[in-house]
Design brief:
The protein contains 43 helices and 16 strands. The chain is an alpha/beta fold.
Length: 955
Amino acid sequence: MPVFGLLGPLMVHDGAQSRPVRGHKVRVLLAALLLQANRTVSKESLKEALWGPTPPASADASLFNHIARLRRELAFLGDEPPRLTAAPPGYRLHVGEGELDAEVFEARAGAARRAHLDEDWDTVARHSDAALALWRGRPLADLEEFADAAAQGQVVQQLLETRLQVLEWGFDAALALGRHHELIPQLSLLVLEHPLREAFHRQLMLALFRSERQAEALQAYIRLRRNLVEELGVEPSEAVRATHQMVLAGDGAQAPAEPASASLSGPGRRPLRQLPAVAGCFTGREAEIAALTALLRPRTDVQNQPPGRGPSTVVVSGMAGVGKTALAVHVAHRLRDEFPDGQLYADLRGFGPGSLRSPRSLLARFLSDLGMCTESLPDDTDDCAALFRTVMAERRMLLVLDNARDAAQILPLLPGSGSCAVLVTSRHTLADLPDAVLVPLSPLGACDQEMLLAALCGTRRVLEEPAAAAEILALCGGLPLALRVVGGRLASRPTWPLAVLAQRLSSGSGRLHELSVGGLDVHAAFAMSYVAMRESEKPQERAAARAFCLLGLWPGHELTSQSAAALLGLPVRETARLLDLLTDVHLVQSPAPDRYGLHDLLGEYAAERACAEMTAQERADATVRLLSWYVAAVRKASWVTVGETQPPPPLDDQPDEPVADFTDAHDALQWYVRELPVIRHAISQAGALGRSDVAWRLAVGLFGYADTYWWTGEWDTCLKAALAIAVDHDDTVGQAWLYRRIAVAHGMAYRNDECLENLRIALDLFERAGDVTAQASITGNMAALHVQAGRAKEGLAYALRSQELYRGADSPASEALVRGRIADALELAGDYQGAVEQHRLRIPLLRKEARPTPLATALTHYGSALKELGLRDEAFAALGEALAIRRELGDHGGAADCLAETARAHHHFGEWEAARRCWQTCLDLSLLHSLPKRAKESRAGLAALDGACTTGGRV
């Protein structure tokens, strides 16, 4: 007896009797966890199950209490292994094999199905009876509202449908075994409950006819036909009509029962059933299965097909090892009943050992299988194809064409009749196959990966070592082939801990060679795709193979057609064509327009090919080309975002094609955020190649990013890494620029002493180099630092010195920056009128340069100075515009600064509630994005407001 029961009212059994689970909410919670047994169910999903789409504010606390009550209810089961565990982001209920009636039912139903395909009727009857014996009523009958909800309702409906299918298989077995008399009462009820289910009507007709009740059998047919015509506008299926004709003829009363899924494909011939066996432990792919079933299932009866409509053709494409064949065979078996004349199957050998199958040889084999003498077949492929279409015209068959190379191999094999369907698998997309529906197959999702691994090596082992299991799943990259290799190795080594294999897979770069067992080999599967392109007769495919190798120098990061062009050393247009070709053959992934990357395992394979087939100099040259492109890109992005008056000197190595322009500062900032992980990796790669000149320019070029997103700390990390490289290579120019930028980073984080120390080091290096413009910029930074430290006199002196140096260097572009420094010092000194005048001269310059971040900063300071002059409306107009800019940029730190200044302005004008709202918004934003200084300031502002209210506005 299973421990948990879903097939009827919710049940928990202790081995002797059912035990009640007290509390409706606790029962719902248990049901929600059982429906996803051994999977993590998020807290949000559990709250929705308990309270619907709008849970109360107390839902988190209540959920915790219900979890605790459920643990107490299940305490009698013991805690080995732990039954109910917290598993971020939710909880997981651990259910052992054979403990959940729904899983036992599915297993027995699967056994009945396999026996049914083999026409082993005794075995069908045994497994069908065992499966149906588990049913106690409608699933979760005592939790009707929960069971009818969308997510649960789908599971319940699937269980109900499987039960009906098991009934059909059991009735087929009973008819074949001569037990037709005992079926009549049950079938008579079922045809009333399911008036459109043809299989039950056909089985009732046979049972009645064999019980010498011919008139009643004919009446059953008449009722079915009337229902189908009135409700759906279709005639009964061919199998039902054949049974009707048999009853009319009064022939075959003692003939053995034929499965409802079968009909004769010709006089004296049985249907062709050429499909391979369904892969053991097939899991997941529910969405793809549903889509393929809907696409391939015939829409109408043969007699009602529109004239000239071709077969439904679906192409399942994907990278090697992603499970295309397993999915296609699984779906084809499911559709057996829909194609009573059978299924044809062929491996076209588009990739792999053995020569490519020619269309004519396949046509000859199919025609022979269909009963034709092939000794005198035409030599011409087109003539053979015409004959094949003629033979298939009156049949309802499914063709599974596995492992196709291209559309040319498929076209002659397509039937001409809409009564047939064709399911193709290929590593190529086959976008040129006419009228085909393309279904790309991605790697398995996390839950399906875990289910497959557990099915292959045992649920207990996965539950006992969750960390090692998670590492194995990550290393397999969601590829079913890799998971089957791992599962096979673990199953053959039952004493091995999962951690042992996880360690083998993760150590060194030999992971691909570890993913091999018996005839399953991930490395060999990848090689079939790659070698087919490398050895192709088409020059473009050979060029794509070379491109694939070069992409292996940059695995783990996506590229655009522009950056990839630099890596490949080719024009952008030609590179885009090669990348699209690699995407079509599933050697490259394209998750978004003009974004290309390698699957984790394919990246390792590409890197291996690059090392084996290219010289070290070729690899280094390609990497430097890409690094140089990123230097040019960050330089341009920094200019667009902050408009530096003195950008770093350009790199000697320039990309062959110029970096595309950014549309505006917002576009450049989005590029920074997207490419930041790549730039970090590029700095380390530059160091490995001894290119300090590249490394420091990449880090310095992030100034445009840091000016908006300084609070993330990413810039600090990149600057420190580049400085270490510059010191190792005695690169004084690079050190000067890096100390300068490190000082800016310290200043942004209010680390004033560290900032001043690094500015002095940078100033000394630039003075020795005679770089006056750099000295002017650093002197301006010193002015900003003194202002930040509250030293107005020193700040103004440095700002005026910076202005003097800039004029000496003839740098008019620095005017907006210098005026900002002077304005800040004047405001600190209490000369608000002077600060306002400087801002009014500065702000138009910033608007003209379209630099949103400096403009927002200037507007904030401008609003602060206007406040002090009592110009309320002008102050809030400036502050409001500044806040809008920060929010549009997604600059949370800048938005917090602006909110704080706006709160102070409201306080200044005695607008207590408005000030409170601003401080509270600032506090919420600071807590959400880890801005402790602003959070502390916000709390102080709120406290000051409380004090102002008690003292009548005096603080």
